[in-house]
Specification:
Layout (H helix, E strand, L loop, with lengths): L2 H13 L4 H12 L4 H7 L6 H40 L18 H15 L3 E3 L4 E3 H4 L19 E2 L12 E3 L4 H10 L4 E10 L10 E11 L4 H16 L6 E8 L2 E12 L6 E2 L4 E11 L1 H6 L8 E8 H9 L12 H7 L13
Parallel strand pairs: 1-5
Antiparallel strand pairs: 2-4, 3-4, 5-6, 6-11, 7-8, 8-9, 8-10, 10-11
Length: about 350
C-alpha cells in the first residue's frame, strides 16, 4: 500500500480543516474504528511474518505522525476560535441586568454605627477590649464583692484557668459586660476620660428577651467636678438624637450596681394605647438603660484619686435599642441567620447614619 500517498492526503485534510468540528471529522476518518489508518492496521493479519514486521513499523509511525499533527492543529484552532470570540463577542451594557439578591446591613451593625456617630459628635472616643477576660478586670476591679451572684456559674461562662497569668488574673471567662474595657482604659491612660465601648458580651441565659451572646454599649466620663447633672444632660441628648425626637421624657429610678454609687435605672416615656407602642408620648414608662456615678473603689483600683476625680458611667443593650427603634419583636431572630429576616429588617449599605438631629 502507498502509505506516503495516504499520509499526504491526510495532511492536506488536516491543514485545510477550518474549525474544531471539521478537524474532528478528519480525525475520525483517519484514526476512528473505520478510519484509513485503522484499515491499514487491520491488513497486517494477511501478511507474512517478515512483511508484518516492516509494515507494522511503517503503519505505527504514520499513525503517530498523523495523531501529533491533529493535536497541534486542534490547539491552533482552539486559540483561533478563542481570539475570534474575544474580537466578536460584546456586552451591551445599556441593557438592564437580571435582578440579583442584594446584601443588607444587619440592624445591630446599623445601630452600632448610629451610636458611634452620635457619641462622637458629643466628644466621646471609641475604645475596645478582649472578649476573653480575667476575673480581676471583669469583677474585682469593678467592686464586685466575693460571692456576688454574677460570679456564679449560672450567669457566667467560665474558662479553664491560666496558671501562667498574674495572681488574681488566672481565672478566665467570657466577659459579662463591656465595663472591663473601661477598667483597661483607665489603667492604661491618665484622666480625664470620655469614652464609649461596644462589643459582644456573654451570659448564660436564653429566652425571648435574652441570648447567651449579646451586644452592649457603655460610656464613661471621668474628670474634675463631674456630677449627676452632666450625666442626665448627656443621656437626654443621646436619647433625642437616637430616637430622632425633639423631646424624650426621662426619669431616674434609684437602683444598685457594684461599680456606681449612686446608681439609677433610666426610663423613657412611652404609650401602649390601642395596642400601638410609641416613644416620647403617653403616660407609661419603658426601662432603657442603667447608669450612675463611678464608685470611688473603682477609681482607686484603676490608680485614680477619687478625691480629685469623679465621673459617671452608663450602659445599655444594643439589641434592646434596636428592637425599640425598629420594631423588632424577638431578640432571638437577630442571630438566626435567616436571609428573609435580614431582607426585611436590614439596611441599604449606602444608608449611612448621620448626626443631623441634635
Amino acid at each position: 500500500m502507498d502509505t506516503a500517498k495516504i499520509k499526504d492526503e491526510l495532511i492536506e485534510m488536516i491543514e485545510t480543516a477550518k474549525d474544531s468540528a471539521s478537524l474532528e471529522t478528519v480525525r475520525v476518518s483517519a484514526l476512528g474504528k473505520k478510519g484509513r489508518i485503522t484499515d491499514l492496521m487491520k491488513s497486517l493479519g494477511g501478511m507474512s511474518h517478515e512483511e508484518r514486521i516492516a509494515a507494522g513499523q511503517e503503519f505505527n509511525k504514520l499513525k503517530q505522525e498523523i495523531a501529533d499533527l491533529i493535536d497541534r492543529q486542534a490547539r491552533q484552532l482552539k486559540k483561533q476560535e478563542l481570539d475570534e470570540r474575544i474580537a466578536n463577542e460584546t456586552l451591551d451594557i445599556t441593557l438592564s441586568p437580571r435582578p440579583r439578591p442584594k446584601g443588607a446591613v444587619h440592624p445591630i451593625s446599623q445601630t452600632m454605627e448610629e451610636l458611634m456617630v452620635i457619641f462622637a459628635s458629643m466628644g466621646f472616643t471609641l475604645t475596645e477590649g478582649p472578649d476573653i477576660e480575667d476575673d480581676w478586670h471583669n469583677f474585682t476591679a469593678l467592686n464586685f464583692p466575693p460571692g456576688h451572684p454574677a460570679r456564679e456559674m449560672q450567669d457566667t461562662f467560665f474558662l479553664p484557668d491560666d496558671k501562667d497569668a498574674k495572681e488574681g488574673m488566672q481565672k478566665k471567662l467570657l466577659r459579662t459586660h463591656t465595663s472591663s474595657v473601661q477598667i483597661r482604659h483607665m489603667m492604661a491612660n491618665k484622666p480625664p476620660h470620655r469614652i464609649i465601648c461596644m462589643g459582644r458580651t456573654y451570659r448564660s441565659d436564653y429566652d425571648m428577651t435574652h441570648t447567651p451572646m449579646f451586644h452592649q454599649c457603655e460610656g464613661l466620663v471621668i474628670d474634675k467636678n463631674i456630677n449627676m447633672g452632666h450625666l442626665k444632660g448627656c443621656l437626654q441628648d443621646f436619647l433625642k438624637a437616637y430616637f430622632e425626637l425633639d423631646d424624650v421624657p426621662m426619669r431616674f429610678r434609684p437602683s444598685f450596681f457594684p461599680f456606681t454609687e449612686p446608681s439609677a435605672e433610666v426610663d423613657i416615656g412611652c404609650t401602649r394605647a390601642q395596642g400601638e407602642f410609641k416613644i416620647g408620648e403617653g403616660d407609661d414608662w419603658m426601662e432603657i438603660l442603667g447608669c450612675g456615678m463611678v464608685h470611688p473603689n473603682v477609681l482607686k483600683n484603676c490608680g485614680i484619686d477619687p478625691d480629685e476625680y469623679q465621673g459617671f458611667a452608663f450602659g445599655m443593650g444594643i439589641e434592646r435599642l434596636t428592637m425599640l427603634k425598629y420594631g423588632i419583636p424577638d431578640l432571638r431572630t437577630f442571630f438566626e441567620s435567616d436571609p428573609r429576616w435580614l431582607a426585611h429588617y436590614g439596611f441599604d449599605p449606602l444608608q449611612r447614619p448621620n448626626a443631623a438631629h441634635k
